Amino acid sequence: MKKTLLALSIGVLLSTPVFAKTGDTVDISEPFVGTVLVDGLESPWEMLWGADNQIWITERQGKNIVQIDPETGKRTVLWHNDVIFSAPPHQGLLGLTFAPDFLSGKGENHLFTAYTYEQEGKKFARIVRLTYDANTKQLGHEQIILDKIPASDDHNSGRLRLGPDNKLYYTIGDQGHNQGKHIDKPIQSQELPTADQVKNHDYALYVGKILRLNQDGSIPTDNPELNGVKSHVWAYGFRNSQGLAFVGDTLFSVEHGPSSDDELNRIEKGGNYGWPNVAGYKDNAGYVYADWSKASTALQKQFNPNVIPAGVPVQQESEFTADNLKDPQKTFFTVSSSHNYTDANCGELSYLCWPTIAPSNVIYYPKDGKITEWRNSLLITTLKNGAIYRVPLDASGTQVQGDFSKHFKTNNRYRNAVIGKDTGKIYVATDAVGNGISKEGKPNTEMANKGAIIVFDYQGK
């Protein structure tokens, strides 16, 4: 059963049984009503609106592809695969995208998904194709499209999209290197595959990249030549790109920054997006590349991304040069080099107070949508802030125009969103576990709605 969460409008405060309470303020100008459609999902990750007017979800931890009825919240398991290795925070069943003729009556009802697995103690990811039987409501006939993609317990990224060119686009993170338990491993986001590696299907240097591949997994003939080699790599220099969205032919991506400078990028063929040499803009502000992987073991044990002792090699952003370097469309947020990253308000969970939002995905709100103020905007779901950041685009849909606005703040981690068929409802999927910042600006380790879909229904005209 749906539960009413809150009615949202300027000057209106309602007390509700789920997570809103008297005294809450909501930073939006349009009236919405919020309801919980379903909860208890096993760490929802991807969420798409299907041609059958159902919501399709991958459950990262549950290893399932499920279908959710947007009216009743009924959950139907379409596919489960025990080969998948799932564990927090980034391992399991990840991206999902439909073939162009899916449920059109013209094709074989193919879709594509990606997941992590283990083999002989090593972690990998693969992209596979599945076939949907609309009569039995089951997916099957798994066919591997691209295998032995590098994977890790951190920064796998894993967003999968079919572009308007009918090519598959897939994001791979830097695997969490040069920090935490991977402190001794170098970041390879700037390293490009060699001809021999491509020939031998060695994808080790696909980390920190966005791939573009044919639907059979082969390399498109019009992919860029980088260092004289044509591979699946479409763009590179990424840390952890968890979101992809097409607006016409223009591809946008959102990127997790280190301690600052989450990014909204426009992805261009052969583009270099700077990581780890540049975070955000090339401005020497708030970030310096510290190569902890080259430091002594003693120094590595002192790892703090914002306190770099002598002996750790460092490089200023201005020292990096690349002809194909691309600036972000927007950052969340660029700060000065004197910024104090230690905030007593967050205590041991200090990272929650850093100037980042942890963007988990990006979707496009159409220029003819029901919500006038939202037309022709990108909507970015965020994990740390539990809110949607809306960024307007110019008339061509190719450039950011203006600043962001923040909406639907709750005590949750927003993993993904889709727009309902009438464009008046925004469906938001929440994480089952994790930490965030509460509406009071304090660290929050207990989410209000775990593994849920919250529907924000526009009540305006």
Helix content: under 10%
Discrete helix count: 2
- Class computed from helices, strands and strand pairing: mainly beta
CA gyration radius, whole angstroms: 21 Å
Strand content: 35-45%
Main beta-sheet annotation: 5 strands, antiparallel
Average pLDDT for all residues: 93
Distance between the termini: 27 Å
The low-confidence parts are 6-29
Got a strand count? 31
Strand order of the largest sheet: 1-2-31-28-27
Which term fits the overall shape? globular
Topology:
Blueprint: E1 3-8, E2 32-38, E3 44-49, E4 55-59, E5 64-68, E6 75-80, E7 93-98, E8 110-119, E9 122-133, E10 138-150, E11 160-162, E12 168-172, H1 195-199, E13 209-213, E14 225-226, E15 229-230, E16 233-236, E17 241-247, E18 250-255, E19 262-267, E20 289-290, H2 297-300, E21 314-315, E22 330-332, E23 359-365, E24 377-382, E25 388-392, E26 405-407, E27 414-419, E28 425-430, E29 436-437, E30 443-444, E31 453-458
Antiparallel strand pairs: 1-2, 2-31, 3-4, 4-5, 5-6, 7-8, 8-9, 9-10, 11-12, 12-13, 13-16, 14-15, 17-18, 18-19, 19-22, 20-21, 23-24, 24-25, 25-26, 27-28, 28-31, 29-30
Describe the structure.
With 461 residues, the chain is mainly β. 2% of the residues lie in helices and 36% in strands. The chain has helices at 195-199, 297-300; strands spanning 3-8, 32-38, 44-49, 55-59, 64-68, 75-80, 93-98, 110-119, 122-133, 138-150, 160-162, 168-172, 209-213, 225-226, 229-230, 233-236, 241-247, 250-255, 262-267, 289-290, 314-315, 330-332, 359-365, 377-382, 388-392, 405-407, 414-419, 425-430, 436-437, 443-444, 453-458. The radius of gyration is 21 Å and the shape is globular.
